[in-house]
Design a protein that fits this description.
The chain is of the alpha+beta class. The protein has three helices and three strands; from the N terminus they run H-H-E-E-E-H.
Length: 124
């Protein structure tokens, strides 16, 4: 059985790398797109990436200190299966791919809002 306090960290280990990958691709798309002013869009994405990477670093430290391990076991058109490991305990969990995508989108929105709030505070 996985302790409830470890679950958010396991989910961060799933979602945060996804969010980073999506944002990095988006940044590349913005860089080659015909925007007249790319800078503001790139800054929003860069600020979000900075925050996501910091949170992933904290998650990885937590996981290392508590011997948490995430294993991606498999994927099909509907589900992705992960194994959450703490010591000798293993818990297999299946996530709907649609849910993974939707949660990644929710997180990107949260990181964009967080970055914009931080920028507003530094400019006021």
């Amino acid at each position: 059985m996985i302790p409830a306090d470890a679950l958010p960290h396991f989910e961060n280990m799933i979602y945060l790398p996804m969010v980073i990958k999506i944002l990095e691709r988006d940044r590349e798309t913005i860089e080659i797109s015909p925007f007249k002013l790319r800078g503001p869009y790139i800054k929003i994405v860069e600020d979000a990436l900075k925050n996501v990477r910091a949170e992933l670093k904290a998650t990885n430290t937590y996981a290392r200190n508590r011997k948490l391990k995430l294993i991606k076991k498999g994927k099909d058109n509907t589900f992705t299966e992960y194994v959450f490991v703490i010591g000798d305990n293993e818990d297999v969990r299946r996530y709907l791919n649609v849910r993974l995508r939707n949660r990644a989108e929710e997180l990107i929105n949260l990181y964009f809002e967080k970055g914009m709030l931080n920028n507003a505070r530094t400019h006021s």
